[in-house]
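not sure who needs this but someone in the group chat was asking about EthD domain-containing protein from Williamsia limnetica so here u go. i didnt clean anything up, its just raw.
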Amino acid sequence: MADSYLFVFSNPTEGNDDEFNSWYETRHVPDVLEVEGVTAAQRYDLAPITPPEVEGIAAPPAPAHRYLAVYELGRDPDIVMGSFLERVGSGQMPLSDSLDLAGVSMAVWRPRGERKVAGPVR
């Protein structure tokens, strides 16, 4: 089990979804998995929903990002992030022009308490 999780929210540059997703899957995820302390990766696409209208409750705003990558970390996040920056700076982990760098958002999260599982559906 991971000690912590790095959540990276991102978008492609305008009109570059295919290039972005190809680079992310075939180049970036494998590059990230080579960083010591990164134990697993999973990407997600935003799944649009239509929340029901409830009187007196405003609908939540749409998320700013269409893609999420979750990296499981088994090492101190500061060390892992330092390795990321070193690899990006040296060209060992190249970033794609299809990545909207200005809009990237990332944070490390640690589990709080035990994982809970729902009972059987009735």
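also The domain at 4-47+63-109 is CATH 3.30.70.100 (Alpha-Beta Plaits). if thats useful
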